[in-house]
Write a structure and sequence with these properties.
By secondary structure, this protein is α/β, with parallel strands linked by helices. The protein contains 25 helices and 33 strands. Helix 4 links the parallel strand 5 and strand 6.
C-alpha cells in the first residue's frame, strides 16, 4: 500500500486526480484541505482529509509520496493577490515541507506551470507573480530535500483541458461560440499553446508513483508535461469546426492580448519520453464531450439530437459505414440490405427525417405472402385459409371454435398464448414452426409481452370467411411500406450520417469508467464527459473492468438470435410478386424472403431481379454449401426460381439479429442496464435497451436522449 499525500485536492487537477486515484486499491490517500466541508462535497468519500490548520498531523502518517498541487493561480499582482500568492505558494508550501522533514525515502512531485518559462522552456522566466513564487519555492524544496533521503521532481504541465471543471477555460469559450448568435470576443488568436488533457496529466503522475525506480535519487529534475504539439487559438477554432461541422462565431481581436501573454508555449517532451511516458490523447479526441459508441440507426439518432447543442459529439463505429443492421451493401451492381428493411413508421419525427432522402421514396402497399407445403397463402395465413385442403381447413376452424375465452385464461408462455388465440392445429403447424425458425426457440420458452400488435388475432367469422374466398380485406398492421429509390434502406440515414462526426473502423476495445476513457483496438484514446452506447449489452459489459458477479450472471441470461442473409442475384425478373414472404416448411431453413429489386428498381441492373433469404441459427451451424442447398436449392426444387437464372449468391452473417424473450429477460435486462447507468453509460437502441424495437423505434431511442453533455 502506497501512502500518498495530496495538496490542492479541491482544485481542478486535484478533484480529477482524486476521483481517479480513489479507486486504486494500492493507494491510501490523504488530502490536505483548507475547507473540509467543501472537500466532503467534491471529493470521493474514501479519502482521508487533513485540515490544513492541523498540518503537523501529517508527520505521523508515514507518507511515501507527496503530490503537491496547492497553488494560488492568478495573473494579477495587486496587493491582495500578492498576499494570497505568498501565503499558499511560499508559506503553506514551506510549512508542509517542515512537517515532512523527518520522513525518509520520500518521493515528492511538485506541480509547476509553463508560465514559469515565458520565452524559452529551458530558461526560467516567470510570466506572472504567482509563477515567480512557484520558482521561489524550488530552492526551499532543495534545502529540505537535502536534509532527507528524498527524490523530487518538478512537473511542468502546459495548457490543461478536459475533465470536471467549474471554471471556464479557453476551450470552453471556443466551444460556446459554435453557431452562437452573438460573436464571442477573443484576442487576435495567434498564441500557440500545447493542449494536454487532464487524463494525461493524471496519467503522468500515476506513472511516476507506480514506477519510482525511474526517478529514484533525482533531485529537482524538471519534466515539461505536454504533447509536444503547438496549436494556435485560431487553429483550435478550426479543429472545433471540423469536429462539429458547425461554424465558430468569434470576433478575433475583440479583446487585446493580456499583459505578458505568452505567445508560444510548447512542451519539450523528450525527457519524459526517455523516462518511458508520453501523452496518449490527441486534441481532436480530447475536445469531445459526448461519445456515441455505434453508428447504427439509434446511434445516428443520438448524434442528431446532440448536433443541436453547442457541444462536441463523436460517434465510434467499428465498420467502414454507418447504419448497423440498417446498412446496405453492393455486389456486382446489385444492392442488398442486411435482412429485410422497409419503413412503415407512423412517428412524425421519423417520417420527416426520412422524407428528406435524396432521390425520392418508393411507396408500396404491403403484399406479403406465406409459403406452406408448396402453396402460396395470403398473409396473414390465420384468416386466409382458402388455398388449403378442405380437411385441413375444417380441422383449423374446428380448433378455432373450441378455443377457450381468452379473458378467462392466464397464459404462462408464448405457446399457450398461440393455442388460445388460434387453436392447437394452426398453432402447431404455423406460428410454432415459424418460432423455431425465426426465434431459435420453442414457443413454450418465450414470454408474450413482446407480441403487441405484431400478430393479427382474427375473429372466428374472419377465419371462416377467409377459408371460403381469397377476396379478404388486408389486415396487415401497416398500410404503406416506404423505401428509398436509390441507395438502399441505408440511404434513409445518409443525411444523419453526413451531419455527424463519426470515426469509422474505430472498434472499441476497452472502457475505463473511472478515467472516463474509451480505447479503440488501434490504440486511439477518447476521453468523454458522457458515454452513450448502442452496442449489445453483452458486448459493452465485456469492455469494462471489475464488473460485479451479479451483473455477469444477468448478462449470461440475455439471449439473441443470430443468422445469415443469403442474397441471390438473378438475370430474370420472373420471381414471386411479393415484397416479402414467410416460409413455414421446415425443410427450407430460411424463415423469410424478400425482394430488394421490388423494393427499388435501383437495387438491381436493368432486366434483373434479386431475393434475400433469412436463416436464423448459430454461427457455423451450417457450412456454405449446406446453407445454399437448404435455402436457394429448395426454391429451385420448388420451381420458384431457376438454377440457370442465378448470377451469383452472397452469404453474410450477423451475430446479433433479434432480442429473444425467455423467462428471465426482464430481471436480467434491468440488472445490466441499471449497472451500466450507475457507471455512467447510457444505453440505446434495440440491443442497448434490449427490446424488440423496429427500426423507427430504434431511431427514436437515440433521438430521445437527454440533450446534455
Amino acid at each position: 500500500m502506497k501512502k500518498i499525500l495530496i495538496t490542492g485536492a479541491t482544485g481542478f487537477v486535484g478533484q480529477n486526480l482524486c476521483r481517479q486515484f480513489a479507486s486504486n486499491k494500492e493507494y491510501e490517500l490523504y488530502c490536505v484541505v483548507r475547507n473540509t466541508e467543501k472537500a466532503k462535497n467534491v471529493l470521493p468519500k474514501n479519502l482521508r482529509l487533513v485540515d490544513a490548520v492541523k498540518l503537523d498531523l501529517v508527520s505521523s502518517l508515514g507518507i511515501d509520496y507527496v503530490v503537491h498541487l496547492a497553488s494560488c493561480l492568478t495573473s494579477r499582482d495587486d496587493t491582495e493577490s500578492m498576499r494570497s500568492i505568498l501565503d499558499v505558494n511560499i508559506r503553506f508550501s514551506t510549512e508542509l515541507l517542515d512537517v515532512l522533514k523527518d520522513c525518509k525515502c520520500l518521493k515528492f512531485i511538485n506541480l509547476g506551470s509553463f508560465a514559469e518559462y515565458k520565452s524559452n522552456p529551458g530558461i526560467p522566466e516567470p510570466a506572472y507573480l504567482y509563477t515567480a513564487a512557484k520558482q521561489a519555492f524550488r530552492p526551499i524544496l532543495d534545502y529540505y530535500a537535502a536534509n532527507g533521503e528524498w527524490s523530487y521532481v518538478h512537473l511542468i504541465p502546459y495548457t490543461i483541458y478536459g475533465g470536471e471543471n467549474n471554471q471556464k477555460k479557453l476551450i470552453d469559450y471556443v466551444r460556446e461560440s459554435l453557431d452562437a448568435p452573438v460573436p464571442v470576443k477573443m484576442s487576435p488568436g495567434y498564441q500557440v499553446s500545447d493542449f494536454i488533457h487532464i487524463n494525461d496529466v493524471i496519467g503522468c503522475i500515476r506513472f511516476l508513483i507506480d514506477n519510482p525506480q525511474k526517478w529514484n535519487g533525482q533531485k529537482g529534475e524538471v519534466y515539461h508535461l505536454g504533447t509536444g504539439r503547438g496549436t494556435s487559438i485560431r487553429e483550435l477554432a478550426r479543429i472545433f469546426e471540423q469536429a462539429t461541422k458547425k461554424k465558430t462565431n468569434i470576433e478575433w481581436g475583440g479583446l487585446p492580448y493580456r499583459k505578458r501573454d505568452i505567445m508560444h508555449a510548447v512542451a519539450p517532451i523528450s525527457k519524459l519520453k526517455d523516462l518511458g511516458w508520453q501523452a496518449k490523447i490527441k486534441l481532436e479526441n480530447g475536445i469531445v464531450d459526448t461519445l456515441v459508441v455505434g453508428a447504427g440507426i439509434s446511434g445516428l439518432g443520438a448524434l442528431h439530437t446532440l448536433y443541436r447543442k453547442p457541444i462536441v459529439a463523436k460517434g465510434l463505429e467499428k465498420s467502414d459505414t454507418y447504419g448497423g443492421l440498417c446498412s446496405s451493401f453492393s455486389v456486382n451492381g446489385f444492392r442488398f440490405d442486411r435482412f429485410i428493411h422497409l419503413s412503415f413508421s407512423n412517428i412524425d419525427e421519423v417520417n420527416v427525417l426520412f422524407s428528406e432522402v435524396e432521390g425520392g421514396i418508393n411507396r408500396h402497399s404491403p403484399n406479403p405472402s406465406n409459403l406452406y407445403k408448396g402453396r402460396w397463402i395470403k398473409h396473414p395465413s390465420q384468416n386466409n385459409l382458402y388455398v388449403l385442403d378442405d380437411e385441413e381447413k375444417k380441422t383449423i376452424i374446428d380448433d378455432f371454435k373450441k378455443r377457450p375465452d381468452a379473458s378467462t385464461v392466464k397464459v404462462k408462455n408464448y405457446e399457450e398464448w398461440l393455442r388460445v388465440q388460434f387453436g392447437d392445429y394452426f398453432a402447431e403447424h404455423f406460428p410454432m414452426v415459424y418460432t423455431r425458425k425465426y426465434w431459435m426457440k420453442e414457443a413454450k420458452d418465450l414470454r408474450t409481452e413482446w407480441v403487441g400488435n405484431r400478430i393479427y388475432q382474427p375473429s372466428i367469422e374472419e377465419v371462416i370467411a377467409g377459408s371460403k374466398s381469397e377476396d379478404t380485406r388486408i389486415t396487415y398492421y401497416a398500410k404503406e411500406m416506404r423505401y428509398p429509390k436509390t441507395g438502399g434502406y441505408q440511404h434513409f440515414l445518409s443525411k444523419l450520417a453526413e451531419e455527424s462526426n463519426i470515426a469509422y473502423k474505430a472498434e472499441v476495445q476497452h472502457i475505463d469508467t473511472i478515467k472516463r476513457e474509451v480505447t479503440t483496438i488501434d490504440g486511439e484514446v477518447y476521453p468523454y464527459r458522457r458515454l452513450i452506447s448502442s452496442l449489445p449489452l453483452p458486448e459493452i459489459v465485456k469492455m469494462l473492468d471489475d464488473v460485479p458477479e451479479e451483473v455477469m450472471t444477468a448478462v449470461s441470461k440475455l439471449e439473441t438470435t443470430s443468422g445469415y442473409h443469403v442474397s441471390i442475384a438473378l438475370k430474370t425478373k420472373n420471381i414471386p410478386p411479393y415484397l416479402w414472404w414467410y416460409i413455414y416448411d421446415e425443410d427450407n431453413i430460411a424463415s423469410r424472403v424478400y425482394s430488394p429489386s421490388m423494393k427499388s428498381e435501383g437495387n438491381a441492373p436493368e432486366g434483373c431481379s434479386s431475393l434475400q433469404m433469412e436463416v436464423y441459427c448459430k454461427e457455423n451451424e451450417y457450412n456454405e454449401q449446406e446453407l445454399l442447398d437448404r435455402t436457394v436449392g429448395k426454391l429451385v426444387n420448388q420451381g420458384i426460381i431457376k438454377q440457370d437464372d442465378i448470377l451469383f449468391t452472397h452469404i453474410g452473417f450477423e451475430k446479433y439479429a433479434n432480442v429473444i424473450f425467455p423467462e428471465p429477460i426482464y430481471y436480467a435486462r434491468k440488472t445490466v442496464r441499471d449497472y451500466l447507468s450507475s457507471v455512467g453509460i447510457d444505453t440505446i437502441g434495440r440491443f442497448g435497451e434490449w427490446d424488440y424495437l423496429w427500426s423507427d423505434q430504434s431511431l427514436v431511442s437515440g433521438l430521445n436522449i437527454k440533450q446534455t453533455c
